[in-house]
Structure prediction request, 354 residues.
Amino acid sequence: MKTYLSRVNGLVSILLLSAISAVAADRHHDILIVTSTNDSSGNAAVVFQLNSAATSLSLVSTLPTGGNGGASGNGGAVQFAGSFGAVVNYGSNTISRLVREGNAISVAGTVALASQCAQPVSVALNDWHAFVVGSNCAESHAWPQGNLEGHVVSLTDSSAGQIAVGQSWAGVTLKSGSVLQLPLTAQGALAGTSVLVTLPSDAQDTPLGAAFWGDILGFNPAHSPDSFALVNSGGTVFPVLGPQPAYPNNAPCWLAKGAGNIWYAGNSPGQAISIFFSDGQGGSFYKSVSLPGVPTDIAVSPDQKWLAVIYTASDGSGARVSVFSVDPYGDLTLAATSTPIGVSAFSGVAISQQ
Prediction:
C-alpha cells in the first residue's frame, strides 16, 4: 500500500509539473537544442536557443549533469520527450534527468543504473519510460521518476552503439555486426529477454544509429554498401543501398526519423546529412546535404519541421550545432549555426519544443 501511495504521489507531482510547463508553453514557443560536452572529468548539458526569426543559435546555459562523460562511437546520448529529457554519464554509471519549464532547462538529479550495469552510452525515451544501454546491460526506468522498471537484459557484447524504442520492442545496435530485439512488457518496460537479429553480409558492418517508425526499426550499418536498413518486429531485414562510393568515402552513421517516409542520417566521412525514403520493406537513398565538418549525432523536432545536427568543424574551431528547416517535401535549408564555445566535440543532440 505504501509503495502504491508513493507512486501515486509521484505521478501527481509529475502531472502538476507538466501542467505548469504546459501553461508556460502557451506563452513561449522557443526551440531549444540540447547536447552534452561528454567530458570525462565532468559532463555538462549544453542548451542553445533558436531565435524567433530562426536566424541565429545562441548559447543559453551549460549545466553540470552531476556525472562524468567519456562515451565514444555512440548515438542517443541526449534525448528529450515533452517536458523531460535525459543525458547519459558514461563514467559515472548514471543518467541525468532534465526538466524544461518555460524557456529554461535544468538538471533534476541523477538516476543510477542497476547495480550490475555499467557505462551507459545511449538513452531512449517514450511517454512513460527511459531505456538505457551500456557496456553490459540494457534496462528500463519509469520516467521521469527514475525507478528501475521491468527486467535488466544482460549483454555479452560490449559494442552497443544506440538504443531506440518502438511500440512492442526496443532495438540495440551492436557495432560488432548485429542488432538486438528487446521485447517490451504490456506496461512498456523491458521484458528481460533479447533476440539476436542476424544481418545480411551487405548490411552488417558497424551498425550504429537507430530510430523507429512505428514498430519498424531503421538503422545504419555504417561501413556497409547498404548503409541503411529496416528491421520489422518479426526480425526480417530489408537492406537499402546508401550513397556511393561507400565506406570509407560515405558512411551514414547516426539516424533520425523525419515526417512520413523520410529518414535523415549523419554521414560522418562524407561530412553530410544523407536523406533516405522508405516504405515498410525497403527504400532508396535520395541525396546528401553537405556540412562543414564531421557529424556525430542528429535529431528531428517533435513537429518534424526542424533538424539539428552536431559536428566537429573541419576548420579546427571545435564542436558546432547547426539547425535546418525542413520543408513539406523533406528537403533541408540551413537556418543557423552555433559559434564555438570551447568544446572539441559534442555528444548526443535533442530538440525541445513547446
The longest strand covers residues 104-112. The chain has one domain: 2-353. The radius of gyration is 19 Å. Helices lie at 2-27.
